[in-house]
Amino acid sequence: MAAPRTSQQALSTAAERAAQSAGGVKLGLAPRSLTLAALRRVPYVLAALALFVLALELLTAGASGAQSLLSNLSADGPLNLFGFGWLGAYVMLSGSPVAATSLSLFSGGAISELESFAMITGSRFGASFMVLLVGFVYYLRHQRNPDGLYIGVVALLTTFTIYTPSLIVGLVALDQGWFDGVSAGAPPGIATITQDSVGALVDRADDLLPSLLLFGAGAGVLLVSFQLFDKALPNLSPPSPRLERVLAFFHRPMMMFLMGGLVTLATLSVSISLTLLVPLSMKGVIRRQSIVPYVMGANITTFIDTLFAAVLLDTPLAVTVVVTQMVLTAAVSLVVLALLFRPYQRAVLGAAHYLTANRRSFMAFLAAIFAVPALLLAV
Fold this sequence. Notes:
With 379 residues, this protein is mainly α. The chain has helices spanning 8-20, 31-61, 63-72, 78-92, 96-107, 113-127, 129-141, 147-176, 190-208, 211-231, 241-247, 253-267, 270-275, 277-282, 288-301, 304-312, 316-355, 359-378. Helix 4 (78-92) packs parallel to helix 6, helix 6 (113-127) runs antiparallel to helix 8 (147-176) and helix 6 packs parallel to helix 17 (316-355). The longest helix has 40 residues, at 316-355. The two termini are 34 Å apart. Residues 1-29 have low confidence and may be disordered.
């Protein structure tokens, strides 16, 4: 299948950054080296946390400006916000900033509980695109080998088919108040510390900037905070021989499900954990059949940073939104694993094979994953 040549260098650079993640620690180093490397990352963690808190406060303060933007886009209701979150994750090449932004909009009163839930789910749909992008880079660099594209399509199809039922049930659950008892504010003292540390700065910025610019500043600070988090993470790509030997033992569906969850929990980024699938699968460390449960596990623990954001915002219902998403995604995944896994796996792998078998099918799929969120945003 021939591939377009335009913007290949830009795509390669973006994908390599996401796949490699900034950092220099590889598994297999001596304990002392690992300790020193971990200590060097502490300033990045502290700076990232500080900027993360500042970003959430700026986004909340500028929520009214974002509300006017959404009105101009005619983005109103769960379907529109679902499409908005999906496309937003494409633009940012990550779902986490979009999910955090959704919670800030909800906390600031710009969107409703159901709209926030839908936008977060949309961000999860868009986040998996990073795997396809990395697969495309491998396709260009490995004599047009379609395996990288195949892995990306499997990741996207798994994400779509698991999150869609959890989205539908979740909207009903929130509307009916199934999880209203599961809510929490910030721990005692955290809200005071946050206000004392960044409150004056946010208030000053609110006086100087229009709400929309204030919201834009918050989005920019949020992206910088996630980049700093990336610098604090160990480099897991290319995988070390030790990691390859460990993962070689995990071929059973439940073990790969747990592995996907643990890797995402360790990296706090589903984009990073899923892009690892491309080199690991192409080296034969992870079998094609194991990609599906790995993605299912990763798509649950990816909400940890979103849950952290909800707690920091000190908006109990924001916690309810995230917990609902986590519980229902886990429930759908476990039902599939326990009762439907083999036929589900065959369906996903078969569809991925069909979509990457020729250029026409793949281009139709690529057009669809951009056209669908655009249509949802426009309806």
